[in-house]
Each structure stands twice: as C-alpha cells, then as structure tokens.
Amino acid sequence: MSTIRVYEGYESPLSTRYASKEMQFLFSDQHKFATWRQLWVWLAKAEQSLGLDITNEQITEMQDNVNSIDFEAAAAEERLTRHDVMAHVHVFAKQCPKAAAIIHLGATSCYVGDNTDLLILRDAIDLLLPRLASIIFSLKNFAIKYKSQPTLGFTHLQPAQLTTVGKRTCLWIQDLLMDERALRRCREDLRCRGVKGTTGTQASFLQLFNGDGEKVIQLDKLVTKLAGFEKSYAVTGQTYSRKVDVEIIGALSSLGTSIHKMCSDLRLLASRKEIEEPFESSQIGSSAMPYKRNPMRSERCCALARHLITLFSNAANTHATQWLERTLDDSANRRLTLSEAFLAADAALMTLLNISQGLVVYPKVIERHIAQELPFMSTENVIMAMVKAGADRQVCHEKIRVLSQEAGAQVKQYGKDNDLVERIRKDPYFEPILNKLDEILDAQTFTGRACAQVDDFLTEEIEPLLEKYKESLKTIQTVQLNI
Question: Would residue 369 show up in a list of annotated catalytic residues for this protein?
Fold first, then answer.
C-alpha cells in the first residue's frame, strides 16, 4: 500500500482506531465479493439439482475461484459498465470460462447484493451478542462484589436516599439485558432474500423452469438452506424490505443509548473520585496537567454511542422513501449506515468490556461523601427514635430543624464539614438516644432492599441470560485497547 494512500487519503477511524479486526473483515471488500461468488455457486448448485443443464465441473470451477478476486480488473470493468454486479460477473466469468454461461443465471443484482447484506448482518449480530454477554458477565461480578457498599443515590443530580454500588450497577445491566433481547430477536427474525427476481415475482426463474412454479419454490428453499437460513422472506420487491434494516439499526441505536447512559454515569462518578475506569501505568491524562486521570474510555464510548444513535434516522428515512418495488437511493446510504452501525457498536462494546473488567471503587471517598449528607437524611430516623423514647414529635422536629439550618450554614457559607451529628450529641435534649445514635446513622440501614434486589436480579434475570452464552463465556479474555 503506498504512503500516499495511507496518509493522504481518507480512512475511517472505525477501521484505523476503533473496531475489531473480526468486524472489519465482515464488512471488507474481500468478504463481500467472495460472498457474492459463493451465492452464485449456491444458485448453480440449486438450479442443477432441479434439472438445469449445469455440470459439476462448472460448479467446481466456480467454487475453486470464490476467494481469488481480481479487484483491479473488477474496478476497471465497473468504470466501463457503471454496474458493480455486472463488473464482478465479467471478472468471475473470465476466471471461470467453463462456467461463464451459467453464472448469475436468472438472477438480479439484488440476489447477490441483498443476500450478502443479510448474511453479513447475521454474522455481525453473532459477533456482537457474545461481546454484550461478556460485559453483562463482568458487570454481574462487579455488582456482587459491591452489592452491600452504600453510596449516595442521586435524583436531579442532587444527593438523595442511599443505594448501593451493586444496585446501581444492576440498573446498567438491566438496560443491557434489554439490548441483548432486542438484538437476539433481530437475529432470530432475520431471513434470506432467496431467489425472487427483478421485482420479486420470480418471473425469470419461472421461465427457466418452463412454468414449473413448484421448482421455483424449491429453488428458493434450496438457496435459503445453503445460505444457512431456515426461511426466506415470503414476499419482496427487488430488495428485501428496508424495514429489516430499521429494526436492526434500531436495536443497535438503542444499545447506544444504554452505553451512553452507563458511561455518562461513570464519568460523573469519576469526577467525584468514587469510581474510576482502568488507568494504565504509562497512560497520560492531560498534556498540560500531569495529575489528571481523565475517563477517556467512557468518553470514547459516549462519542461512539452518539454516532450510533444518530444512524437510526438514516435507516428509518431510507425505508420511508423506498418507492414501490425499489429505488437506488438506498444504496450509498446503506453502504455507510450498515457498516458504521456495526463497526461503531463493536468498538463501543469492546471499549465497554475493557472498562467493565477493570472498574476501581474507592470506598473511603464514598463514605466521606455519605458522611457529608447522611446527617440530613437521618433526621427523620432521629425524630422517630426520640418519639419512641417519649419525646414530643413537634418539639423534636423544631430542634432538628434549627440544628440542621446551623449545620447547613457551616457547609454552604464556610465550606466546612457537616457537623449536624456533633450538634445533636452536644444538645442535652437528645440524651435519651445518644447511645443509639451510631446505630441510627449506620449507612447500611438506609439502603433498603438494595442488597437483596441485587441477589434477586442475579437469580431471576442475569443468570438465565448468561446460561445462553455459557460456551462463549468460557473463553472470555481480558480486553486491552490498542489506542
């Protein structure tokens, strides 16, 4: 590859920086055009089995040349023909002179184009699902480890009732479980386009088989089976319905919202120094501020996720504007949208897996933050304890109100620590409960059923899902980011 091509031409960051080699291969020219050729082989095999004059020698010749693609010759042909499929038909025919007459027999361009897209979409989902399961598995272990660790909950980004680190993690996992379900449903619903002809009527194949409709039906089923699908779409125009793309990109876009939400939370927690993503010993946080430990992985996930979210509108608008049996204004858009959606999702998941495998919690910082807010949160419990000890609720409420205002002034006006507890200890009025005050202020008593909810969620929701991926989870490896 020339220096000019590498450094003076555009290359997508998804391929040079972010996405995995496996996902890049699925959307590569080599894989795409080799799959076209394989589809021509399958078509020939199916047509031969149903009585058309196609020899084993022709099929073998085609099969032997599936991967040996002359890209320069194909590019030259396309410049002449302005037709990518026919360019590759011509090049393949030159490589397979014995089979030249039967390549692409009865088919339209979408036979190879759309069926290849469906095969790639299937394999791409199959690549993403185990990655997603691995993240859920890592977060599950994290949730178990910290299921009892109290932490401040937040509503309106203001301190609220306590939760636990593990319970908050389960909120992230629940979103990812929904994403796994949506992607798995897309995978299960995915079908082959099969052999449907130029407008989906199978007219060309009906001519090939002299009006024998049953053979046309069998041809469609045979090719579908050879492609590894159980069913083909019952009806199509020239293309499979772009509604399929809407569903798949919709699921990926929804995954993007989950990733963005979780990584936004991590960025907020990193700012509070409560939880940090992995940070390598040689990593530089800032060119100007050497002390910084920026959450660059979470920020990368958010950036990729936002791009992923925006791609949904492309898929939706493409489907909405397909006129009648098809128009070609979907082509350039889908070349970008389908590949970028999967490459972005793949990159975000790989980065999120790296994050989830190395999250670092700082309990002492969390405890300090709790100590700053818990005295205010505990006032109702103090009042209840005093009432049990015989005090008048209204009098106690006023006492607590005054002390709380004084403590609040120390925090807000003078930047001091919250000293409400010390004020309560020094006030003789509260002497009846002073021996119980530490128990009343125990953070564990303010987290409700958070710990139990983690256990229930693990048993009822997480483990049944992970059971589906037990084989892939056996080979889970620690992910390192190259860049």
Answer: no
Q: Write the CATH number of the domain with boundaries 124-198+226-279+290-361+462-473.
A: 1.20.200.10
User: Are 193 and 232 within 8 A, CB to CB?
Assistant: yes
Catalytic residue from among 49, 68, 83, 286: 286
pLDDT at 302: 97
Confidence of residue 412 (pLDDT cuts 50, 70, 90): confident
As a residue count, the chain comes to 483
Predicted confidence at residue 6, as pLDDT, reads: 66
282 is catalytic: no
Task: Sketch the domain layout of the chain as residue ranges.
Answer: 25-102, 124-198+226-279+290-361+462-473, 379-440
User: C-alpha distances in angstroms, 427 versus 27, 97, 396, 410, 423?
Assistant: 72, 100, 12, 17, 6
Q: Name the CATH architecture for the domain at 25-102.
A: Orthogonal Bundle (1.10)
| Degrees, nearest 5: CA angle 249-177-295 | 80
Instruction: List, as own/partner pairs, every contact residues 442-446 make where C-beta atoms lie below 8 angstroms and the sequence separation is at least 24, other chains included.
Output: 443/150, 443/162, 443/367, 443/370, 443/374, 444/148, 444/150, 445/381, 446/150, 446/161, 446/162, 446/374, 446/377, 446/378
87 contacts: CB under 8 Å, gap ≥ 6:
74, 75, 77, 78, 80, 81
pTM over 0.70: yes
Asked if residue 31 has pLDDT above 50, the reply is yes
The DSSP 8-state label assigned to residue 192 in this structure reads: B
User: Under CATH, which number does the domain 379-440 receive?
Assistant: 1.10.40
Asked if the domains 25-102 and 379-440 are classified in one and the same CATH topology, the answer is no
Task: List the catalytic residue out of 2, 156, 271, 281.
Answer: 156
